[in-house]
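dumping this here before i forget
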Amino acid sequence: MRTSQLFTKTSKTAPADEVAKNAQLLMRAGYVHKEMAGVYAYLPLGLRVVEKIKQIVREEMNSVRSNELIMTGLQRKEVWEKTGRWDDETVDIWFKTKLKDDTELGLGWSHEEPIVEMMKQHIRSYKDLPASVYQFQTKLRNELRAKSGIMRGREFVMKDMYSFHASAEDLDAYYNEVIEAYKRVYDRIGVGSDTYVTFASGGAFTQFSHEFQTICDAGEDIIYLHRGKNIAINEEVIDDAIKELGVNRDELEQVKTAEVGNIFNFGTHKTDEMGMYYADTDGEQKSLYIGSYGIGITRVMGVVVEKFSDEKGIVWPEAIAPYRVYLVAIGEKGKLAADVLYDELCAQGVEVLYDDRDERPGIKFADSELLGIPYRITVSDRLVEAKQYEYTVRKSGETVQLTRDELLARLG
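structure:
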C-alpha cells in the first residue's frame, strides 16, 4: 500500500474529549474514527490489525476442532425469556428495538441462548457429540460508562465459542484444551508473558469461571498473583478462592489488569433451562453440558496499544501490525530506488506501507513512529550512492545500514 492511496491522515494532537491512551493514539494515527463515546469505526489500517488478531484466534479455535459460523445480531425476545435474561433487571445492558409489527427484538449483547436454540436442530443424539461452534460478531452493549477507548465499548468485535458435550468429564477435557489454545493466542499476539488464567466469579452456575487477565495499568480489574505457583485470582472472589486453592493472602501480589478473554462452564444449567437434550445409546433423553469461551478482539487491540506504546506512538508486535515495513523515500534518486524496492518486497510477500508522499523527511519519520510499524526502511539519494539502505527497528530504535542482500536476508 502506498500512503498516497490511503485516505486517512495522521494528527499531532488527540481529541480533547478522549481520555484513553489507546483511543488517543489510534485516532491520531488514523486507525479508528470515533463516532461517539464507546463507538468507533475501524479504518483501513485499524481493520488490518483487527483481521490479524482474528486470524490468530481463528487458527487456534480451528485447532480445537471448532466450526466457524456467524449468527444474526437481531435476537428474539422469546429465546431469552426461557432463561430469564430478557428482563432488564437481570441484564441491564440490552439495546432493544421493534419491528414494524411491534414484535420486540434485542440487539445481540451475547449469543449463548440463540446458539443453544439453533443447535437444537443439529444435536439430537450422542452420535452428534461433542460439537463446537464459534463466530466473530459485533456485540452491542448499553454500557453506563465508556471511558476506556476500545477497551470498553458499546459496540465491539468479539469471538464467542460454545461447546456441547455428553458428560461433565468430556466438557472438562475440552475446557482445558481451550485454555491451552487461549494461551497460544495471547503468546502469538505478543502479550502471553503478562496474561494469566485467573479465577473469577462463576455467577449462578458454578463457583468459579476463568478469565484471561493481562497486566495493564489502564485495566479496570485487580487480580492477585502467586507467580511461583502461577495462580491468579480476581479481587471479587479473593477470599473464596484462597480457601479453594490453599494459598496465603500474604503470598499474593496485587496487580492491575485488563480482561482479554473468559471461559465458562455452564454445566447443564443452560440446556435444561432451554429444553435442549440428546438421546443416549439407550434412546433416553439426557442433559447436555455446555462451555462458553470469549475473546474481545477489539479489546485485545486496545490493550496491546496501552502496553506497547511510547512517547512517539504505537509499537505493534509484528504478528498483528498492519504492515511489517514502513518504506520512506527521500530525494529523486531515493524515490526511484524506493519504487523498485517496494515492487520487489511486495513480490516476495513482505507487507509494506510505502510513504511516497511529497513531504519532509521529519514528517515521514514521525508518522512511521506514530503508526508503530515494526521496521522502517529509508532510501535516500545519499544511501543510493552508497548502495545501502537504512533499517530501523521501531521497538528498540536501533538503526543500521545494510546492503540490498543484507536487507532482504533480514526480511526473509
